[in-house]
Structure prediction request, 391 residues.
Amino acid sequence: MAPETVYLDYAASAPLRVEALAAQRAYDEAPYAGANPNSLHTLGREAARALDGARRDLVRALGGGFRPSDVVFTSGGTESNNLALLGLAEATRARASRRNRVIVSTIEHDSVLDVRGALRERGFEVELAPAGRDGIVRADALSGLLDERTALVSVMYANNETGVIQPVGKLARLAHAAGAVFHTDAVQAFGHVPLELSDVDAVSVAAHKLGGPVGVGALVVRGRTPLRPLSFGGGQEGGRRAGTQDVRGALAFAAVSRACAARLSEDRAFVSARAEALYERLCAPGTGIVPTTSEAVDAGRLPGIVSILVPEVDSETLILALDQEGFEVSAASACSSGSLDASHVLLAMGVPRNEALGSLRISFDERVGEDALHRFSDTLVRIVAERSRHR
Prediction:
């Protein structure tokens, strides 16, 4: 990125933290660098010990009473979610054949929602738990879908577009009352807010969302929870995920997890204050910009995600105009078949399509300065005003 560029797309992938770089350098200089942690020789055992240390650090940062042996290292959030949906559902059905239903929410990441087809091909019924206009999946909405045939419920910890935090503990307890397993995608939340996971059976996390390297993540599954592997060819990760582990990436993930956990309260308060100030500037009367969810502050949301709508201008136009001014943001929408369409998350929340087409997600952490956010807000307000006058 050019020096003048202000990167505000941390929710897509955060820049590497110094702790990750230091951990990678330390690995590169270690005698066991490049050794296979599954080998029996000395360097292999040293690599295995380092990998086990990464597991310990990760579960300490995660909380929820998980054990190091519960960690299954993966290539990232998408693989973790795929493994959770298919592996947990199939293993649960193997224990009780009547359990052939899976429930996911309408606001999940595509790495959860796009597994529905594969689940159906395997003979599962898939139901969708709705979210309200405030972006929250409520207990009564889930309760009406649960029955004795439910194998798995998956509801994300916090939404990657709106930042709205879900009542995961309450939803997990409902799932357990029906005899189902509960998984949460905490990829966007981990390292940014304290997680309440004591009632959760499995959780997905990824390094690059908090400043670790791209290409490493984990599915953390309690020892009592059944999980069928999706890959075969080795006994790695307790037989749950075949393939030689990325020790270098795991150590960097563990390092940023430790760092974020150590300053979580301080950074959360700091970033939240900046986000609230940005909402106030952007959504001031007369700007033509509105928050995606007016109730999100009371419900709780991730500190570094600012989700807004510009009903009169499409997000693609705004992103390109901001890019020319040196600001990198994203839309809460996906490019499909060459055309920018409205976000499935916002549509599921009941946002009118014409408004959802003008969504923007601004995301950052404590490393983005206040001056940069002020310049961004001034630039966006000006761009929206210019576009409105042209209309």
Summary: The CA atoms of residues 175 and 182 lie 6 Å apart.
